[in-house]
Amino acid sequence: MITKRIIPCLDVKDGLTVKGVQFENLVVAGDAIELGRRYAEEGADELCFLDITATNEKRKTLAALVKRIAANINIPFTVGGGIKSVDDISVLLDSGADKITINSAAVRNPELVTQASQEFGEQCIVIAIDAREVAGEWYVHTHGGKQKTDIKLFEWAKEAQERGAGEILFTSMNNDGTKNGFTLEATRQLTDALMIPIIASGGAGAKSHFKEVFEQANADAGLAASIFHFNEIGIKELKDYLKAENIHVRG
Amino acid sequence: MKVAILRYNAGNTQSVQYALERLGVTPLVTDDPALLTSADKVIFPGVGHAHSAMNYLKSKQLDQLIPQLKQPFLGICLGMQLLCEHSEEGDTACLRVFPIKVVKFDERLAQQQSAKLKVPHMGWNNLQKLNGKITKGLTTNDYVYFVHSYYVELADYTTAQTDHIVPFSAMLEKGNFHAAQFHPEKSSQQGSQIIQNFLEL
């Protein structure tokens, strides 16, 4: 039977891993490749690298980083951060990324999702959605959460699936950085409404949070950053806990 | 040892190349029939669409060459499916090394199952009923990484099977031809073990 996945996410700036609290005040946590390799050895199922470098050289440095990751890491990995075009995707997949993730550019230009999935296959197109709940409605945000849109989470997620997204990476901005747990209700609505896998993100602070999001929200994968980077929870320790709780995981 | 990776229009040769390099082997990536024929081992990876991949192989006459190769040969993912008789993906006649059909996962059946299984089958799953030459050292507790929407039916040549919606062929073997539906190059130590076993044939 297919397992639930644990995905450490590494926000990368100039080759170093950084993680902010609620999308601000970045803190540096270590070398991206070293961390990634350590997670792979400890039993991470996939890795996610989000490049937050904002320079003109970005495209070149990101491709070089992807090559180094692919050469050093023997599990699948997703790369994202500022992808705007089919050409950007092509460069990253050719450099050895297994999947790419698009966020703001897909909201601005949904046709990019259609083009990308037709060109490279649905399995490698992950649509990342940052959303915040305001008065009972979930609104999609772009530009690292800085810009609110009027687009509703569930409508956009369904459209992304119809356009050929292979997975949805859903981050609750209300929960991100709080360590109070994933948002369960909205994640459950997504897994119920969509055919494609849902990766839950934002709020993981304890092992039990992963159990909740798998059991109660039926998420296919749980993604987290700081709890892994700062050694608050080890991947192996988390897997052992989930196995003891009868959640089907690898390792 | 000369290891050739067959170059064609269904990408992701890069990851297989890196996996071999981690095992100390520098492969040759080529579609040259002479180089493929003289290699000690040939690996046929692939991520892409069956129909366009077969068209490319035909344009290079590789559809004639591949079934004739005598050295240990490993098809991965789409490479495995192309070694079969026919694929529902684009209604494609394939290389007929294995007389087996490739069919699409039934999405309706997937939704009916209690766990609400998904298509594509994407993630880590385990191998059952292992009886192939290149799975030495692996057990049914070992997991490997899959990404696919079409699967190879169970057959006499099945040397490992996996359950997702239905049981299907995770690995095939017939003489010098070996095949894996999952990605050994992305399957952690277990995947490296399979590649290493193949290199030692």
Brief sketch in words of this structure:
The complex is a heterodimer of chains A (251) and B (201). Chain A has helices spanning 32-42, 58-72, 86-94, 104-108, 111-120, 153-162, 184-193, 207-215, 226-229, 235-244, and strands at 5-13, 16-21, 24-31, 47-51, 77-80, 99-102, 125-134, 137-142, 147-152, 167-172, 198-201, 221-224.
Explain the overall architecture:
The complex is a heterodimer of chains A (251) and B (201). The two termini of chain A are 14 Å apart. Chain A is globular, with a radius of gyration of 17 Å. The longest helix of chain A is centred in the first third of the chain and has 15 residues, at 58-72. Chain A has one domain: Aldolase class I (TIM Barrel, Alpha-Beta Barrel). Chain A has 251 residues and is an alpha/beta fold. The mean pLDDT of chain A is 91. In chain A, 37% of the residues lie in helices and 29% in strands. In chain A, 51% of the residues are buried. Chain B has 7 helices and 13 strands. In chain B, the strands form 3 sheets. Chain B has a 7-stranded mixed beta sheet. In chain B, strands 6-5-7-10 form a 4-stranded mixed beta sheet. In chain B, strands 8-9 form a two-stranded antiparallel ribbon. Chain B is of the alpha/beta class and 201 residues long. Helices cover 26% and strands 29% of the residues of chain B. Chains A and B meet through loops of A and helix 1, strand 8, strand 9 and helix 7 of B.
Taking Cα atoms only, what radius of gyration of chain B do you get, to the nearest Å?
16 Å
How would you describe the oligomerization state of the chains in this entry? heterodimer
Level of helix content of chain A? Answer: 25-40%
Summarize the biggest pleated sheet of chain B: 7 strands, mixed
Strand residues, percent of chain B? 25-35%
The CATH H-level homologous superfamily of chain B: Class I glutamine amidotransferase (GATase) domain
Name the average pLDDT of chain A: 91
CATH class of chain A: Alpha Beta
SSE ordering of chain A:
EEEHEHEHEHHEEEHEHEHEHH
Chain pair with largest interface: A-B, 31 and 41 residues
CATH-defined architecture of chain A: Alpha-Beta Barrel
Unreliable segments of 5+ consecutive residues of chain A: none
Give the overall form of chain A: globular
Number of helices of chain A: 10
Q: Which class of secondary structure composition applies to the elements of chain B? A: alpha/beta
